Amino acid sequence: MRFVARQSELRELGALAAAAAGGRGGATLIVGEAGIGKSTLVQAAVESLDGWRVLRASGVEFESELPYAALHHLCAPVLEYRRELPAPQRLALETVFGLGAGAAPNPMLVGLAVLSLLGAAAQDVAVWCVLDDAQWSDEASRQALAFVARRVGADRIVMVFAARDVASVPELDRLPRLAVAGLAASEALDLLRLSALSNLDGPVLERIVAEAGSNPLALVEFARDADPLGLPNVVTGGVQGALEAQFTRRVLRLPARTRLALVLAAAEPLGDIMLLRRAMTVLGLDAADLTPVVEEGLVVAGPRLYFRHPLARSAVYRSADARTRRQVHAALAAATSADTDADRRTWHRANAVAVPDESIAAELERSAVRAHARGGFAAASAFLERSAQLTPDASRRAGRLLSAARARLQSGAPEAARELVNQARLGRPGTADRAELCLLDAMIDYHVSRSIPATLALADAAEGLDPDRAREIYLEAFASLMFSIDEPGRLRRLALRIQERVPRRRPPRAVDLLLDALLAQNLLPVDEAAPAMRRAVEAFLDQTRGADANPWWMERACVLSADLCDEVAMEQLTDRQVELARAQGAYAILPHALRFQAAARVMVGRIDDAAASIIEARAVDEAAGTTNLLGSDLTLAAWRGDTGRFREVREALRDWAGVEFTAVFYATGVLHNGLGGYEDALDALLVARDRQQQGSYVVSAFHSELVEAAVRARRPEEGKLSAAWLEDLARASPTSWAVGAHLLARALLEPGLGAHELYVGAIGRFAHTRVRGHYARARLLHGEWLRSVGRRAEARVELRAAHELLKTVGARAFADRAVRELAAIGEHPGVGETDPLNALTERELLVARRVASGAGTKEVAALLFVSPRTVDAHLRNIYRKLGITSRRQLRELQL
């Protein structure tokens, strides 16, 4: 097609190229209806490039279920650069491209690997990537390339996508858009004249322009078929339908052998010339049979054979009858190697039969296993669904439909999974499959809503399963319900039901001990529950040495260790959970793990380290385009006394009130205790305590906060229940943290001079722990008490120590409270020097800390899901703001 107009669009693409050549990469999504000229526009932009590497791929309708197919086509020319990637990224790419064996990698790790791969290629020469007809590409490829497109700002890379509309490519909806509209009437006439169709009369040309809606492809195709003395042969029903009909008419005019060869080409999405020749031989055809369509430009022959427009491919395939389609797929299956491309061969075999065939169904099932291993859950489901269609035995068919439904659910398509479950229900599922069917029904509802009814239904569905699997499902349902604020007693009733219906396992796994611990925590007094809780924590501490430990269950063990006031185990488990989530590429869990790590670090007074965990968690959220629970973000803001950030996160948590209920009100209590708003602190903490279910993530810090607020608000009676809880915990789990918290609560509630010894005892206990923030606050409370009873000299010592400790850990509001107390006895601590690190953004601070600890550029890039060049850009800003010039100087700052 000749190229006319589009000068403004070309300028936009040219600006992208110019910026990327200077190290500021970018991306765009070109949208417009079929035939509007998107591909022609991109080709014109490519032809204007000088010295660039151009990588191309096109979506093909028949490949849309094959995971990473489009990505593989695009990256194939630069795969030699994978040797420069960190090992996890290299393995992820090799796994999804079938170049190596490995567990299914997380899509975010694949995206990061592609970013690193293209970044490495762009070190040599600027890279222009094109994904045309993106609406027909596979979802996994679009996800990976969208991830890359949002992160090329510091690289010499341009990412260009073309699609018919944004709705068809939701993964790309965050990219800048370039809309391509129809040609102006004068431009349309120019195109027709340039296309050697000027033998048509003026009125006919004008009618073509009107009928085609100024769509360039429609203009040329309608004019090609028009009678020079009459009107074009246009079909009503929209330009796309008319174009498909136009291509169909052209196909039907071809010789029979050419039509058959053309249908064969339409059924082979790769355009592999050698494969097509082998298949043509099977059909008794030869290359000459394609000559007519090559000569008239319907297909283009080169290193690969491709259709001039995707509508032509679909029109050719749809115009063929079912028998012809089966014939060409059988030929393609015969021509495809079972060793090098088994899955495509199987897919062609499946499309070559019209009746059930168990041997092909079994092949499809094996292809599904391979697709699942590559992380292609949607593809696995497609293979299994087709396998079920070809399965003669009704019971086995139901089982394969359920397997397809499970894969669909894993791919994030719960409604499609529900449809497959319903199909299985209509068959004859066996006993085991009926239990699986009930479980999938419940899992789909749970996946969609996480509502209390869905959670209870999930627990109901566990009853028909084998004991080991049932315990895991019960654990998932029970732990989920613990997060919810529900009617009193429901959680206890579920705990009793689980205890009655699930036999104990001998020997127990770590996950079994965890379920036992959570049940005990919710059914028994703390002194009776503590041994079971401790056994679960110890089991998970032992499990941290295994690379195959489950980071999801470890999260619950982290909470148990906090409930037992075992800060050593808490830190070990949270750190190991983060390590495992990173190592396994479990990016759905990683933000949760990082936020639990942040909460643990706040508890032990590592507030700056907690902030680093939160920043990394946000980076994962941003990369995944998800929102995760923000309770730790709120707790961090509260301990820092950052009211602005607190309000921002609190607003974001408005819709999560049922899930993060205790965290919200605990953090509110901390904030107001730090600021001196004790009434507000107490009111918030009482609401949470009154509505909190027994055993549900209640740690000593919550009750300690409440006792302090009650006493300072001069409502000590309100704190006695929490003080009693702390006493019970100290007896059940006599760690220095638990005993220190108990003694501090007693000191606060003690009306006489006997409080002094209790304060000293609490401080002595806290001094032997890692919970430095609580140790510092105990000294602050002691200093406040000493001042209140007139022991000013002793108060000054305690308040000075508290102030320095609180400044060191980063608890600014409490440090300010110590300053106010010191001012009341005539002492005014100096403000101190401004910390130069305050000039850094959160992201820059995290980069600085990581680099100062010895991490390399690629390691930091992987951590933040950005390219190495982006990390280098951050480092340049860091050096400038801190007045340094090297990594060595950065390390010397002892961040």
Automatic annotation (TrEMBL):
PROSITE patterns linked: HTH_LUXR_1 (PS00622), HTH_LUXR_2 (PS50043)
Keyword Nucleotide-binding attributed: yes
Annotated GO biological process: regulation of DNA-templated transcription
Keywords recorded for this protein, A-Z: ATP-binding, Nucleotide-binding
SUPFAM superfamilies: C-terminal effector domain of the bipartite response regulators (SSF46894), P-loop containing nucleoside triphosphate hydrolases (SSF52540)
Gene Ontology, cellular component aspect: cytoplasm
Coiled coil: none
Domain HTH luxR-type: 833-895
Cited CDD domains: LuxR_C_like
InterPro entries, per database record: AAA_16, P-loop_NTPase, Sig_transdc_resp-reg_C-effctor, Tscrpt_reg_LuxR_C, WH-like_DNA-bd_sf
Superkingdom assignment: Bacteria
GO MF annotations in UniProt: adenylate cyclase activity; ATP binding; DNA binding
PANTHER family reported in the protein's UniProt record: TESTICULAR SOLUBLE ADENYLYL CYCLASE, TRANSCRIPTIONAL ACTIVATOR DOMAIN
Entry protein name: Regulatory protein, luxR family
Organism for this UniProt entry: Micromonospora matsumotoense
